[in-house]
Amino acid sequence: MPRPKTKDELLQLSKLNYDKLLNFIESLDDSKRNREFPEGYLNRNSTDVLAHLHHWHLMVSDWYKTGMAGKKPDMPAKGYTWKTLPDLNRNIWGKYKDVDYSTIRKLLDDSYRGLRSLIKKHSDQELFEKKKYPWTGSTSLAAYLISTTSSHYDWAYKLIKKATKVE
Questions:
Q1: Is 33 buried (19+), middle (13-18) or exposed (0-12) by CB count in 10 A?
Q2: What is the DSSP string of 27-82?
Q3: For 131-155, what is the mean pLDDT?
Q4: Residues 130, 152, 119, CA angle at the centre, nearest 5°?
Q5: Whether pLDDT at 67 is above 80
Q6: Is residue 156 exposed (0-12), middle (13-18) or buried (19+ Cβ within 10 Å)?
Q7: Whole-number Å distance between alpha carbons of 89 and 69
Q8: Is 30 exposed, middle or buried (0-12, 13-18, 19+ CB in 10 A)?
Q9: Taken in order 66, 72, 78, 81, is the CA torsion positive or negative?
Q10: CA distance linking residue 144 with residue 136, whole number of Å
């Protein structure tokens, strides 16, 4: 499915990619699901990747709350810039690296439902009109939501599939 251009497409593609990701992970046996990724990956296993997704859900939700309150959110996070994203992602990894899979799954499911609720509150125009909200800059609210949902789930699926492949 191409990049979403409507609320319904965004909801549909985010659900499709989320379900695809989770179905793939759930199809792995425990040893493969928890297997350490090869050298060179920041996230060391599937649970780390899900924690990463969860934390990005929380960040976007925070940007939204702050921005809709008329304030400028710290994007991507306080003390970080888009150029220092690798440092932020390492920080996220460190925060969750010792949290078990079942806990991360619950956190992810909760934050996923929160973003879906946020999307459902808005019209196509509110989601997809560029510069509609001062805090989104020159882009649209949907651009942030697509990046954090459907596109991010697709990235996670491909990463986990590649990293868990048996040699």
A1: middle
A2: HS-HHHHSPPPPTT-SS-SHHHHHHHHHHHHHHHHHHHHHHHTTS---SS-TT--G
A3: 97
A4: 50
A5: yes
A6: buried
A7: 26
A8: exposed
A9: positive
A10: 8
Neighbours of 7 (CB within 10 A): 20
Max intra-chain CA distance, the chain: 52
Q: And the tokens for 155?
A: 């990235």
Instruction: Report which of 140, 1, 136, 154 is spatially closest to residue 72, judged by C-alpha positions.
Output: 136
User: Phi-psi category of 131—alpha, beta or left, where left has phi over 0 and alpha has psi -120 to 50?
Assistant: left
Contact of 79 with 147, CB cutoff 8 Å: no
Based on C-alpha coordinates, what's the Rg of the chain?
16
Q: Rounded distance, CA 104 to CA 47, Å?
A: 7
At 146, the pLDDT band (50, 70, 90 cuts) reads: very high
Task: Give the number of residues written for the chain.
Answer: 167
Closest CA to 148 of 91, 90, 107, 108: 108
The C-alpha atoms of residue 69 and residue 9 are separated, in whole angstroms, by 27
